[in-house]
Amino acid sequence: MTGLLAYAVLASLFIFALAMGLTLIRLFRGPSAQDRVLALDYLYILAMLMMLVLGIRYASDTYFEGALLIALFGFVGSFALAKFLLRGEVIE
After folding, report:
1. Does domain 3-85 have CATH number 3.90.550?
2. 78: part of which helix (H) or strand (E)?
3. pLDDT tens track for 30-82
4. Residue pair 67/40 in contact by the 8 Å Cβ criterion
5. What count of Cα atoms within 13 Å lies in the side-chain half-sphere of residue 18?
6. Any idea of the CA torsion for 77, 83, 86, 91, to the nearest 10 degrees?
7. DSSP E strands, the chain
8. In this structure, how many other beta carbons lie within 10 angstroms of the beta carbon of residue 66?
9. pLDDT in the model for residue 51
10. What phi, psi does 88 have (nearest 5°)?
11. Which end of the chain has less neighbouring CB within 10 Å, N or C?
12. Cβ neighbours of residue 56 closer than 8 Å, sequence gap 6 or more
């Protein structure tokens, strides 16, 4: 990995970690349930992005598969939470 790419990867990991910390604060202090659901959505997106950046850093395909799984489970989870907030139940 070249010098510039290594610095860019480290900088992006730092920025994503900072964003995760701020999102966790929003998750725990959110005034409404909708704020908490949005924070969870953003957390899974950040986790997926961090996995992709780690896959670039270590040149491994395993991280990309992990990011795909995080995206899949995050979508299903946010759909279930939205349905629960809308109707009060997930399975009818």
Report:
1. no
2. helix 62-87
3. 898 888 889 999 999 999 999 999 999 999 999 999 999 999 999 998 888 88
4. no
5. 6
6. -130
7. none
8. 17
9. 96
10. 90, 0
11. C
12. 5, 9
